Amino acid sequence: MPDERIKVIAHSGYKSEESPRVVIFQNNEIKVLEILSMWTEEGLLDRTRRRFFKIKGSDGHRYKIYYDEKAKEWYLSKE
To answer: Cα 35 to chain center, whole Å?
Structure first.
């Protein structure tokens, strides 16, 4: 199952889309209460960078989302 593209309102620092503040998917707006962990992965073949975040949402659920720097889009990870 492919990852789902989502909308994210993010704080932009020296990098664009630096940290998520609000996640919007399936017509729900979920505030990010806490960033539990974050890391960056880079593809071996195409060198595509993705910045991952495990977050705690205002709905009580935890999510794994990432920003694809090449596509300049946010995704909800299905794994």
So the answer is: 10
Q: In which domain, by residue range, is 32 found?
A: 4-76
What CA–CA distance (Å, rounded) separates 2 from 29? 21
Q: What is the pLDDT of residues 19-68, one digit of tens each?
A: 899 999 888 999 999 999 999 999 888 888 999 999 999 999 999 999 99
Entry pTM: 0.86
Count of domains for the chain: 1
Rounded to whole angstroms, how far apart are CA atoms 10 and 20?
A: 4
Locate 8 and state its tokens. 């994210």
Of 34, 13, 31, 11, the closest CA to residue 22 belongs to 31
